[in-house]
Amino acid sequence: MHSYGQPAYGQPQTAFAQPAYGQHVLKVSYAGYGAGNKMMDVTDFVKHQVHEGRRAFATDVIYTSLGDPLPGVVKHLVVVFKKDGKKHSVLVKDGEPAHHF
Asked: How far apart are CA 19 and CA 22, in angstroms?
């Protein structure tokens, strides 16, 4: 079983940024990685990263850590979360810079 604390294959954790002092309260309700209706549930992985203080995500970290659910297909990461009690969602496409939330 893979430990969520470190990305697989010796990848550095540079795709995740440490939050600034006084960061807002954030609660992730869903995270999925894939394309169309073929999404891999990565909620636990993202929750763990947020718990560790990381709030910037690029799809290469998901791909490297958990695998490619659709080889050869451009995918995206969707994260649904509450920030200070308000519901938000973000969509990060493969190859885009890390998205901070």
From this structure: 8
Query: What distance, in Å, lies between the first and last C-alpha atoms of the chain?
Result: 28
**Using an 8 Å Cβ cutoff, are 82 and 88 in contact?**
yes
On the question of pLDDT at 91 being above 60, the answer is yes
pLDDT the model gives residue 62: 82
E strands in the chain: 26-35, 38-41, 56-57, 76-83, 86-93, 99-100
Q: Are 58 and 99 in contact (CB under 8 A)?
A: yes
For residue 52, the one-letter residue type is E
At 24 the pLDDT is: 66
pTM: 0.71
Distance CA 46, CA 59 (A): 11
26 contacts 101 by C-beta, under 8 angstroms: yes
Q: Which amino acid is at 20?
A: A
Q: What angle do CA 57, 48, 50 make, to 5 degrees?
A: 50
